[in-house]
Design a protein that fits this description.
heterodimer; A: 113 residues; mainly beta; six-stranded mixed beta sheet; four-stranded antiparallel beta sheet; 0% helix; B: 118 residues
Chain lengths: 113, 118
């Protein structure tokens, strides 16, 4: 079945460092890909999405490109801030059979000042 | 304010005592879903609903029930809770299903309900 694999966490960086969180997927067909962010004590919020190959999603300085040839959707940010500390989830939409999002296990990011 | 609300936010209960977690959205969304979040497993879908009176099982439906009598509400029912249902639960909604290629497939999540079953 469809699945999403994220890089193991937790990840700790200093403020203004470059961030990459790796995400690869296995899917049949052409799913949409998403990054969700979960701040402490809150629900998930959509950070960005891409619906077809080579699309680039971007928001709040974060970017991710839908790479069909490598089945990847890595999250990047050029200069992280303390306020970016959160748990990040990569997900894909599963439209075959059950309608749902398939999530990776999440990556906890901590940014130190 | 457009939002998904869940109640209660925190609940500690004992094995076998029936409970209901409510979920309500004010965005007139047709699609609603329940997920549970467990460490190292991400979020897994329990049940979903495409519209009023239309519900279907997700990946981990055992021990749960749902109903969708009105568009805005989608309660999660645990008839006889067990300790393995201790988890963080999220309700989500969207105008169109997450698998659709529309601009309106973004899932809006509630704040979560932390359930402990002793």
């Amino acid at each position: 079945g469809n699945s999403v694999t994220q890089m193991e966490g937790p990840v700790t960086l200093s403020e203004e460092a470059f961030l990459t969180i790796n995400c690869t997927y296995t899917a049949t067909g052409y799913p949409s890909l998403f990054w969700y962010v979960q701040y402490p004590g809150e629900g998930l919020q959509l950070l960005l999405k891409a619906t077809k190959a080579d699309d680039k999603g971007s928001n709040k300085g974060f970017e991710a490109t839908y790479r069909k040839e490598t089945t990847s959707f890595h999250l990047e940010k050029g200069s992280v801030q303390v306020s970016d500390s959160a748990v990040y989830f990569c997900a894909l939409s599963d439209f075959q059979g059950a309608q749902k999002l398939v999530f990776g296990q999440g990556t906890r990011l901590t940014i130190n000042p | 304010e457009a939002q998904v609300t869940q109640n209660p936010r925190y609940l500690i209960t004992v094995t076998g005592k029936k409970l209901t977690v409510t979920c309500s959205q004010n965005m007139n969304h047709e699609y609603m879903s329940w997920y549970r979040q467990d460490p190292g497993l991400g979020l897994r879908q329990i049940y979903y609903s495409m519209n009023v009176e239309v519900t279907d099982k997700g990946d981990v439906p055992e021990g749960y029930k749902v109903s969708r009598k009105e568009k805005r509400n989608f309660p999660l029912i645990l008839e006889s809770p067990s300790p393995n249902q201790t988890s963080l639960y999220f309700c989500a909604s969207s105008l169109t299903p997450p698998g659709s290629k529309s601009s309106y497939n973004e899932q809006f999540f509630g704040p979560g309900t932390r359930l402990t079953v002793l």
